[in-house]
Design a protein that fits this description.
The structure is a single chain. By secondary structure, the chain is an all-alpha fold. It folds into 3 domains: about 130 residues, Cytochrome Bc1 Complex, Chain D, domain 2 (Orthogonal Bundle); about 120 residues, Orthogonal Bundle (Cytochrome Bc1 Complex, Chain D, domain 2), CATH 1.10.760; about 40 residues, no CATH class. The chain is built from 15 helices and 2 strands. Strands 1-2 form a two-stranded antiparallel sheet. The termini are far apart. About 40% of the residues are buried. It binds heme C (2 copies).
């Protein structure tokens, strides 16, 4: 009977969703405490792989001129970001976007502000190849790593082979990134039942976050994200509009993504570059808010230096002509409470890394 089988299929789909998807994403409006990290069957995390990935993450061989490692733009002491509005870049070039935190990146379905990549293994090779980031040739990098005896020994130990490839380099780095987790934030303790874990102003902020402020319509679940893209029409960053090096980067990326008008492009098209769907024009990924006080400045282009500015932006209903959000009419004390929530409640324990000995 087709009717029964479709009911059965629905029930099975619901159960799969409820058991496997819901626990890591969550329902709109609901925040969830950290419980654990999803397991990556295609690239299981092992201590030796994580150690190797950490070395590579710190290794300047990954850049063409030997001056940059992943840490250059994702510094442990800056919440794995770089503190710049527009990220650092390869000498003589200029980046065009803010360096996002890598904390809790394990929970993101989409990577990059425009979500153009969906796994850390695929992501890791992009900055190495990027002309305006590390500008490295991957064939050359493989030979460089293959010529270091310590790496040969470690790759053999981790992957059971002497064949050092770009894919295995990326796998090790991804395994390391999956260990960067925000733990024991006051919100986790609070949601687990410790009502004193939040101050009274942070508790009031939480109420606004999930109520009048409507923040949790997009920032929810464990990682305060929705795995979606929204055109809030964040203002363009005037500081880099006039810089010809940024224009070169913007046009280069647009051209790579087959954007016809790339030579006259003056804005960041965001998700549109990937989907070519009008609704994605200037839409960007909802970012995590975990450890948010450690990763200023904010938004894909670092346009806001402080959380006060971000809250003001949302209170006024977002950027010009956006249809995603509406003005909130928050009072001064409500904005203060919201800030207290973001700063206090979402701050996990500092991730302290033993700096590796790069061979
Ligand atoms: C020159 C600065 C720079 C270097 C070096 C760099 N990154 Fe990034 N990283 C960025 C910027 C900027 C973005 C956002 C780019 C975008 O969205 O288009 C980013 C994005 C990412 C993301 C996506 C995070 C998210 O939440 O979407 C990951 C993961 C990442 N980088 C890992 C790495 C790794 C691994 C390395 C070393 C192999 C590295 N990065 C080197 C600047 C850098
Ligand atoms: C419609 C979905 C949506 C709603 C509602 C929303 N946000 Fe966001 N939020 C986003 C998106 C998308 C971005 C990234 C925009 C960009 O990079 O240009 C963002 C960025 C942020 C950032 C900057 C994060 C960073 O690392 O740069 C903060 C802080 C933030 N939101 C807090 C809030 C607060 C507080 C509220 C409620 C007052 C709120 N958001 C409501 C979607 C939303």
């Amino acid at each position: 009977m087709p009717k029964n089988s479709s009911v059965l299929a629905f029930v099975i789909a619901f159960l799969l969703w409820a058991f496997f998807v819901l626990p890591t994403t969550g329902l709109a409006g609901h925040l969830q405490p950290f419980k654990g990290v999803p397991v990556w069957h295609k690239n299981p995390t092992t201590p030796a792989k994580v150690e190797l990935g950490k070395k590579l993450f710190f290794d300047r061989r990954l850049s063409g001129d030997g001056t940059m490692s992943c840490v250059t733009c994702h510094m442990p002491e800056m919440g794995f970001s770089d503190g710049q509005s527009i990220s650092l870049s390869y000498p003589t070039t200029k980046n065009w976007r803010n360096s996002p935190t890598l904390i809790n990146v394990v929970f993101s379905k989409y990577l990059f502000h425009d979500g153009r990549v969906e796994s850390l293994e695929d992501q890791a090779l992009f900055p190495m190849m990027s002309s305006f980031e590390m500008n490295q040739n991957l064939d050359f990098l493989e030979e460089e790593i293959r010529s270091v005896p310590e790496y040969v020994t470690e790759f053999r130990k981790v992957f059971g082979t002497d064949d050092i490839t770009r894919e295995r380099i990326a796998m090790a780095i991804a395994a390391f990134e999956r260990t960067l987790i925000s733990r024991n934030a006051p919100i986790d303790l609070y949601l687990a039942g410790e009502k004193d874990a939040l101050s009274s102003s942070a508790r009031k902020g939480l109420e606004i976050f999930t109520g009048k402020g409507k923040c949790s319509e997009c920032h929810f679940g464990v990682n305060l994200i929705d795995d979606k893209f929204h055109a809030l029409n964040v203002p363009e960053n005037p500081d880099f509009q006039a810089d010809p090096r940024v224009a070169a980067t913007r046009r280069f990326v647009a051209k790579l993504n087959h954007f016809d008008g790339y030579r006259t492009l003056a804005e960041d098209p965001g998700r549109y570059l990937i989907t070519k769907d009008d609704k994605d024009w200037r839409a960007f990924k909802t970012p995590t808010l975990r450890d948010i006080s450690k990763t200023a400045p904010y938004m894909h282009n670092g346009i806001f230096a402080t959380l006060e500015e971000v809250i003001e932006f949302f209170d006024l209903g977002g950027g010009e002509a956006n249809t995603a959000i509406k003005p909130l009419g928050l009072k001064a004390d409500e904005k203060d409470a919201l800030k207290a929530f973001l700063v206090e409640a979402l701050a996990g324990e500092d991730i302290v890394l033993q700096y590796p000995q790069v061979p």
